[in-house]
């Protein structure tokens, strides 16, 4: 088996409209396709992020899950940015709480974390 790339990442949200606004209007991800699945009372929104895709799902009353960066399981999603300070300022201008900028001790690159509407830890990493 030879894996060539990450095809997509799936996220389940608790408030579809709020999360759609966050990922599309604030983070600027492009919409590939949006589907309402009536039998599940659920949306599936395919988003374009560079060369990969995020599938944003909504389900009625999804169970809560621990989502801090240091919890067992998926740690976080990281997005590359050109200018970390500019990105932090942009997020803060949209009233998004952003942690202090840190420096990766291995690469020397700057990074920081911020939450999505369901408190999923997201990272921006200066490429």
TrEMBL record:
Coiled coil: none annotated. GO terms for molecular function: metal ion binding. PANTHER family: FOSFOMYCIN RESISTANCE PROTEIN FOSX, LYASE, PUTATIVE-RELATED-RELATED. InterPro entries: Fosfomycin_Res_Enzymes, Glyas_Bleomycin-R_OHBP_Dase, Glyas_Fos-R_dOase_dom, VOC_core, YwkD-like_dom. Transmembrane segments: none annotated. Signal peptide: none annotated. Residues 5-127 form the VOC domain. The lineage of its organism: Bacteria, Bacillati, Cyanobacteriota, Cyanophyceae, Nostocales. Keywords: Metal-binding. SUPFAM superfamilies: Glyoxalase/Bleomycin resistance protein/Dihydroxybiphenyl dioxygenase. It holds the Pfam family Glyoxalase. This is VOC family protein. It comes from the Bacteria.
């Amino acid at each position: 088996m030879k894996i060539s790339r990450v095809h997509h990442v799936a996220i389940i949200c608790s408030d579809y409209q709020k999360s759609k606004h966050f990922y599309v209007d604030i983070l600027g991800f492009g919409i590939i396709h949006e589907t309402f699945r009536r039998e599940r009372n659920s949306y599936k929104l395919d988003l374009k992020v560079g060369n990969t895709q995020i599938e944003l799902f909504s389900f009625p009353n999804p169970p809560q899950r621990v989502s801090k960066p240091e919890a067992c399981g998926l740690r976080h999603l990281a997005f590359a940015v050109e200018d970390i300070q500019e990105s932090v300022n942009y997020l803060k201008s949209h009233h998004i709480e952003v942690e202090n900028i840190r420096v990766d001790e291995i690469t020397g690159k700057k990074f920081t974390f911020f939450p999505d509407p369901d408190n999923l830890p997201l990272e921006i990493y200066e490429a």
